[in-house]
Write a structure and sequence with these properties.
- Belongs to the pseudouridine synthase RluA family.
- Responsible for synthesis of pseudouridine from uracil at positions 955, 2504 and 2580 in 23S ribosomal RNA.
- By secondary structure, this protein is of the alpha+beta class.
- The protein contains 9 helices and 18 strands.
- It folds into 2 domains: 69 residues, Structural Genomics Hypothetical 15.5 Kd Protein In mrcA-pckA Intergenic Region, Chain A (Roll), CATH 3.10.290; 230 residues, Pseudouridine synthase (2-Layer Sandwich).
- The strands form 4 sheets. Strands 5, 6, 9, 10, 11, 12, 15, 16, 17 and 18 form a 10-stranded mixed sheet that branches. A 4-stranded antiparallel sheet has the order 1-4-2-3. A two-stranded antiparallel ribbon has the order 7-8.
- Strand 2 and strand 3 form a beta hairpin.
- It is elongated.
């Protein structure tokens, strides 16, 4: 029999996910059978696969300990690509989180077509042995597009990730972006309240229930305006994929340098005249309650030098 107490850094994890990490050599089907046949108990009571573990819970697993933790070793994941952690720009760090200034062109996670080091690789290289804590590996708490630069939060402990999941799910954070867009804005500020199609909806889902439209709200304010472009400050009330880029394109003011939703002739022009070689979208500031105690924290990332140079050439320096 195996029996142990759940520690703080494991709190908030689903039981079935915790068991897969704790007993990696046991087939998942067998783990669920053990739960179903009451061989896994939490505080002496019958457990459920989806229940969330709390600090201090006593987990009991009935069975031969040597067979459960021994057996054939699992496959080893390939090592991450070599990266230079000194390249990472840390805006804030404590025992719970990191705030990183992500450069444009760096993907947050691995995925199809992603080569080279990701933000995850750099963060874990920076933390070294401290990157993994009680089976939780430090991970980004939200997303930024690959070509978007700026501040992104990383959870260093599982309770921090649980906290940030609640924060971003319930809109308890405030994010501000700077972006350069095509054209003259009709007024000094405005709100784009326009539902967006779910970005990764499957073909099967579309066939069954049609395109799933999701509520999306973006607030914008002119920081500096010229006759042919505007520097905007944008705040998002929802976190849809490519939200700012899709919303601004929808009202006829696409983001400069946007290869997916942008105006290609405008992009060629600003590249030739102002030297813009990337997407002009920067996550400038984020406010959020801290995982320990809930005190309000604000972190800012300065505009990259290459974008400041573009603003100088465009006569749009605020």
């Amino acid at each position: 029999m195996i029996e142990y107490r759940i520690e703080a850094d494991t709190a908030g994890m689903r039981l079935d996910k915790h068991l897969r990490k704790r007993l990696p050599n046991v087939p998942v089907s067998h783990l669920f059978k053990m739960i179903r046949t009451k061989k896994v108990r939490v505080n002496g009571k019958r457990a459920q696969p989806e229940q969330l573990l709390s600090e201090g819970d006593v987990l009991t697993i009935r069975g031969d300990e040597q067979q459960l933790v021994g057996a054939e070793r699992p496959k080893v994941d390939p090592p991450p690509p070599p990266v230079d952690p000194s390249r990472l720009v840390i805006l804030r760090e404590d025992d719970w989180l990191m705030a990183v200034d992500k450069p444009s062109g760096m993907a947050v996670h691995t995925g199809s077509g992603i080569t080279g080091g990701t933000l995850v690789d750099y963060v874990r290289a920076w933390l070294g042995p401290k990157a993994v804590r009680n089976d939780f590996a430090a991970s980004p708490a939200h997303r930024l597009d690959r070509e978007t630069s700026g501040v992104i939060l990383v959870a260093k402990r599982r309770p921090a990730m649980v906290h940030f999941t609640e924060v971003f799910t319930h809109g308890l954070s405030r994010k501000r972006y700077l972006t350069l867009v095509k054209g003259k804005m009709p007024r000094d500020s405005g709100v784009i309240d326009l539902p967006l199609a779910e970005h990764q909806q499957t073909a099967e889902s579309k066939a069954r229930r049609g395109v799933n439209m999701q509520a999306a709200v973006t607030r914008w304010k002119v920081v500096k305006q010229s006759g042919e472009a505007a520097l905007l400050s944008c705040a998002i009330e929802t976190g849809r994929t490519h939200q700012i880029r899709r919303h601004l394109a929808a009202i006829g003011h696409p983001v400069a340098g946007d290869k997916k939703y942008g105006d290609f002739a405008f992009n060629r022009d600003v590249r030739a005249r102002w030297g813009l070689k990337r997407l002009f979208l920067h996550a400038e500031r984020i406010e959020f309650p801290h995982p320990e105690g809930g005190a309000k924290v604000a972190v800012e990332a300065p505009l990259a030098a290459e974008l400041r140079d573009v603003l100088k050439r465009a006569a749009l320096v605020p």
